Amino acid sequence: MNIVLFHSTYGLGPAVRQAADRLRSAGHAVWTPDLFEGRTFDTVEEGTACQESIGKDELLKRAVLAAAPYSERGLVYAGFSFGAATAQTLALGDERARGLLLLHGTSDVAPNASADGLPVQLHVAEPDPFEPDDWLSAWYLQMGRTGADVEVYRYAGAGHLYTDPDLPDYDAEAAEATWRVALGFLAELDGNDRGA
Question: What is d(CA 120, CA 102) in angstroms, rounded to the nearest whole number?
Fold first, then answer.
């Protein structure tokens, strides 16, 4: 599969590069856009301040421009937290999208969004202060209305960004379970593409 993988609020750091390498080892082509232009951060607060200084419109423009050269191939959009929200926005706007892999994050669903049959997989901590239960329930219903085929995996006791080994949130067991399921999801998408 061709995958564009967006970083979290911390920026394009080692965890994102390791994740991309893991996906490449499974046979996928992966691109990791740097929406913060080389800046990485040690805290959520610093990363959020960077996002706010750049602005939502500019970040979305950077994401669209980064994905555009590959979108004709049919992309799986993926991302971590803030990057997952970005991936969701792009996937719902790309009729050629092959799939959407959300790690630790979601975004608002536009009322007129359409994603008929789009395979979507979400992995999120339980509980997650950034993805509370009432929000996730509403998100799931809204995604269903777009026609997306949504699977949600919850990981009890894990921290928000539990797949990042450099953060206190890290949970090795939950991270390995996430990657096992996510790689299966991508392999199934790849198999469906080859069989078409």
Answer: 8
Q: What is the pLDDT of residues 117-135, one digit of tens each?
A: 999 999 999 999 999 999 9
Cβ neighbours of residue 165 under 8 Å, at least 6 residues apart?
A: 15, 18, 172, 175
* Domain chopping of the chain, boundaries: 2-195
The single-letter code of the amino acid at 45 is E
Tell me the C-alpha distance between 71 and 120, whole Å.
17
Angle at 22 between CA 5 and CA 128, to 5 degrees: 60
Q: Position 187: which residue type?
A: A
Number of residues in the chain: 196
Sequence-ordered alpha helix ranges (H) in the chain: 14-25, 44-54, 56-71, 82-92, 133-146, 172-195
Question: Is the model's pLDDT at 46 over the cut of 80?
Answer: yes
Q: Which two tokens stand for residue 142?
A: 């809204």
Write out the H or E segment, with its range, that includes residue 6: strand 2-6
Structural contact between residues 87 and 101, judged by C-beta atoms closer than 8 angstroms: yes
Q: By the 8 A CB rule, do 119 and 149 touch?
A: yes
The CATH architecture annotation of domain 2-195 reads: 3-Layer(aba) Sandwich (3.40)
8 Å CB contact between 54 and 36:
yes
Residue type, 159: G
Q: What are phi and psi of 133, to 5 degrees?
A: -55, -45
Amino acid at 144: G
Dist. CA 34–CA 20, nearest whole Å: 13
